[in-house]
Amino acid sequence: MSVAELKERHIAATANVNALRERLKQRRQELLDTDVAGYAKSHGKTAIGFGSTDLVCCRTLQGHTGKVYSLDWTPERNRIVSASQDGRLIVWNALTSQKTHAIKLHCAWVMTCAFAPNGQSVACGGLDSACSIFNLNSQVDRDGNIPISRVLTGHKGYVSSCQFVPDQETRLITGSGDQTCVLWDVTTGQRISVFGGEFPSGHTADVFSVSINSSNSNMFVSGSCDATARLWDTRIASRAVRTYHGHEGDVNAVKFFPDGQRFGTGSDDGTCRLFDMRTGHQLQIYSQQLDNNDNEVPTVTSIAFSISGRLLFAGYSNGNCYVWDTLVAEVVLNLGALQNSHEGRISCLGLSADGSALCTGSWDKNLKIWAFGGHRRVI
Amino acid sequence: METAAVVVTDAPPPPAPRSPPGYPDLCGRHRLQVEVQILNREIGFLEEELQSLEGLQSVSGCCKEVNEYVGSQPDPLIPLTKKRRKSCCIWRWLWAKLCFNISWICCCCGCPCRQRRPICTCKHLKNCCCCRRCRCHCCRCGCPNRNCSKATCCRPRCRLRNLSCPECSCGCVWSCSKFTEICLCPKCSSTCCMS
Q: The G protein gamma domain covers which part of the protein (chain B) (predicted)?
């Protein structure tokens, strides 16, 4: 086939894709008979009322000397690992605020960290395009550092996000600036599957975040600078199960809803959204009305759901941390405006495994733990 | 006087880079082929997705599921006011009077966890009832035996120990400012099981 013919086919195929996308958009619009807030309010739901002292900062974890970029809780025992611009991972006992480990990294440009399900190992990744694993029980070397136990190499771009597969100690998923996600075998260091890339239907820009479904660990979602989120089945790397459109900017954060059937996203367009995994429907947009004086829309950097799914915590680039009532789509609290809140952008946040505490990490170099400080009256 | 004829010839042009020869653009052709393949694949996926929308439930169906799920889950971070049910008073009286080893009966005192917990196996406990003043075992490990003075508490480990106690919801674990292994929470005067 000649180049001219190929070019004609390219133009025709592009037009066909655009037309199909438009039809899909219209068809989905026809099915959009309500949203979560519309449904909830029509069934008498009202916003949760938070008093000013209902959610309080009960711990400040100080020790990093640079911006905090990422954090993760253990599945139990209330420990947190954090990664910072200072080139260190710190493991904290969240209850006592004590540091149990401080790991100096070979590559200081770290972007993400994660705890293994058994709490014995941590993983991190960043601009070195690799994911490093540290066993917290290892003997320290001559310099007092914990040695690397495994390096996962293969990505062709920075590692932006990583998460261990919940019920499998030896498997980990990474998201990367090379537009792919990879499932790794941590014990061998080998790539098991690559999701996306040049030919398979993957992201067309950097992947910024991943979230594994705790109800079905074969499924995970990735968020990307191509403004989409994609659902993957780890058993089928050849194509994404579904692509979720809607955002108008980079998708910086993705997190599964506690029921495992929905997931939330946070984006550079300043909104969070709730998508239904199975149908692909966009169920709700969480968007704050801005003052006319606002020139720049604060971007969403990180999100987490409370254990019931009723609350959506969203960190923003302007230091706000909104607590959204997910059912009525209203902001019920701003942790960024509370006493003792962070003094900089909130870059990461995460909920403890039992849902009793939220940890936020910030560019002000600190982490803070927030818990319920109010009263439940039994009448 | 004769003048010498000067023949001025044009100097040759300085060397200049030349455009590459007109070889067939194989790289561009290959790239185009790959792109067309990707587009055709995308067309297939989009057609599949369009077909899957036929008969798909509308958004309201999904919203109903979200509403039902959220409404059914307890949440330690949410302020809550619950009415104590009358039936709970009867059970409480019964537990206080009788020694029942019926572990399948759950404590319905408003405790958010609602899980069925075994009765306390504390050997100091003469009355095996766990529920006094709504201190359900599933929410905290406060040994109902107030005279228990052992440094290491004999009470069973609560697997959900980090949940706030239902009555005063003090978030015992997190709000206790003087954390020790066994801590006397100033708000609810209960010992908090922490580790």
A: 32-91
Q: Cβ separation of A6 and B32 shorter than 8 Å?
A: yes
Q: At what angle do helices B26-52 and A3-31 cross, to 10 degrees?
A: 20
Tokens read off for B126: 């003469």
Taking Cα atoms as reference points, which of B56, B33, B37, B34 lies closest to residue B45? B37
Q: What is the DSSP string of B135-178?
A: --TTT----S-TT---SS--SPPPTTTTSPPTTT---HHHH-SS
Q: How many CB atoms lie within 10 A of CB A143?
A: 7
Q: How far apart are CA B94 and CA B78, in angstroms?
A: 31
The CA distance from B34 to A315, in Å, is 40
Between CA A309 and CA A326 the distance in angstroms is 7
β-strand A207-212 against B182-184: which pairing, if any? unpaired
- Residue keyed to tokens 């029921």: A259
pLDDT band at A77 (very low <50, low <70, confident <90, very high): confident
* Strand duo A171-176 + A159-164: pairing: antiparallel
Name the closest residue on chain B to residue A327, using Cα atoms.
B67
Q: What is the pLDDT of residues A303-344, one digit of tens each?
A: 999 999 999 999 999 999 999 999 999 999 999 998 889 999
Cβ contact, residue pair B62, A276, below 8 Å: yes
- Chain B, residues 54-93, CB within 8 A of chain A, namely 56-60, 62-67, 69-70, 73-84
Judged by DSSP in three states, B134 sits in coil
Identify the residue whose tokens are 């994404």: A240
Q: DSSP character for A192?
A: E
A31's CB contacts (< 8 A; 6+ apart) are A281, B53, B56, B57, B58, B59
Alpha-carbon distance A31 to nearest alpha carbon in chain B (angstroms): 5
- C-alpha B44/C-alpha A25 separation (Å) is 16
Most confident residue range from A338-352, B14-28, B132-146:
A338-352
Task: Check: CB of residue A196 under 8 Å from CB of residue A180.
Answer: yes
Cβ-Cβ contacts under 8 Å, B173 against chain A: 95, 356, 371
User: DSSP of A211-242, one letter per residue?
Assistant: EE-SS-TTEEEEEETTS-EEEEETTB-SB-SE
Distance from CA of B12 to the nearest CA of A (A): 39
Phi first, then psi, for residue A10 (nearest 5°) are -60, -45
* Cβ proximity of A327 and A283 under 8 Å: no
Burial of B47 (0-12, 13-18, 19+ CB in 10 A): middle
Residues of A in contact with B110 (CB under 8 A): 378
Rounded to the nearest angstrom, the minimum Cα separation between A376 and chain B is: 5
Q: Which of A164-168, A295-299, B137-141 has the lowest mean pLDDT?
A: B137-141
Instruction: Determine which of A233-242, B90-99, B174-183 has the lowest per-residue pLDDT on average.
Output: B174-183
- Beta bridge partner(s), residue A220: A212, A232
Q: Widest CA span of chain A, in angstroms?
A: 81
Angle (CA) B172 A215 A42, round 5°: 75
